[in-house]
Design a protein that fits this description.
The structure is a homodimer of 238-residue chains. Chain A is of the alpha/beta class and 238 residues long.
Chain lengths: 238, 238
Amino acid sequence: MSLRYLSAKVAQQIDDELMSAAGAFSLDQLMELAGLACAQALAKVYGAERYPRVLVCCGPGNQGGDGLVAARHLSMFGYKPTIYMPKPGSKDIYQRLHTQCKNMSISTLPEDEQSLRTALKSSDVVLDAIFGFSFKGPIRAPFDAALPLLSTSRLPIVSVDIPSGWDVEAGNEAGVGLNPHVLVSLTAPKEGVRLFRGQHFLGGRFVPRTLEEKFQLNLPTYPGYDQIVDITELTQKL
Amino acid sequence: MSLRYLSAKVAQQIDDELMSAAGAFSLDQLMELAGLACAQALAKVYGAERYPRVLVCCGPGNQGGDGLVAARHLSMFGYKPTIYMPKPGSKDIYQRLHTQCKNMSISTLPEDEQSLRTALKSSDVVLDAIFGFSFKGPIRAPFDAALPLLSTSRLPIVSVDIPSGWDVEAGNEAGVGLNPHVLVSLTAPKEGVRLFRGQHFLGGRFVPRTLEEKFQLNLPTYPGYDQIVDITELTQKL
């Protein structure tokens, strides 16, 4: 049985079920575990000694919240993260997660393009938490300018769930998305990343067996007590 | 600089600051990370192959909530946890965490003493999340009967924060507490465990540096991306 790739609609249904009265998870819990998984995946590939300066790019939605959680954990892991968040989310949880980062002395870039340019020159790796599985193009300002800057920086990129700019189902057909070296799919990979050929992790070790079966996810076994599992080979078998 | 041992009052102050408007953490977040740390510590010492059956004993307070989170993660890690929770907490979060466990097919024992006796005979290790740092004796029913049963079972015990029955500051002077093999202190060890001589982990990798400095915690460095650090040697230097 092979791993299921999710449409945007099914990904949303799974999230809804997890947070329904029956699923009983709070957004705080799921975001904490998702962000921790992203931080672990980055730490697994890009060690803090060689890649201390992480530019954490956050969109305005829940994906941006995952990024803020990851930034905090990365700081705990010994990294020096900086947050790029030109359109802060309006939800209360988003503000709280940002405050937690500020309490860790993690700085946030000014919103202008030049600040991003400058920051990229003094970063070692990018965590891309801009767009998630609810992304619908086209890419709007200020991200229409930011994505090309990230791409041309030639820094290694770790993308969360779907590389920013990729269609959740059609992938990077339009060619305007990022080309991450590492992808962290959350819960299960999305349709759009079938052709992704970098290092691929799965995170979101919180899906109950009943939900896994209902949606026929066929999840792999996570190792030990990690919050991530490497699915590179599993997804790139010929 | 040595690790600071906390009084019950200071432990409460730190919790309050973390969850204040300035600290910005939600109880959901902190409990998730605390419970995950407990599950990791148990997994580090008692592998799922030799010790699959974990009896997770939960008190009615936040400590019991940590236990429920740990039970869920242990189930994810491949253990077969069972919950003993004779006095369920009344908070909404407690109910939600219990529902999450039920969704993982984790069973909860009936509340009677005989069920506990029977369950102990088919368990490999106990996770003690009965009393936390707000415990004030004497030990009341049904825990006055449960603690001796846990002690006489001779199963290895992993205690969370303060071994149940120990005074948070005076320790096990009265001799009525559990004698765990492993202790997982959360945030920082409590005064009462200065004389603990088993394997000792620290969890709660979420304390911002500013708070650490304000309370002079002198926390050790956590390894890699673990949520726990072994402080056995650090706390048992002569």
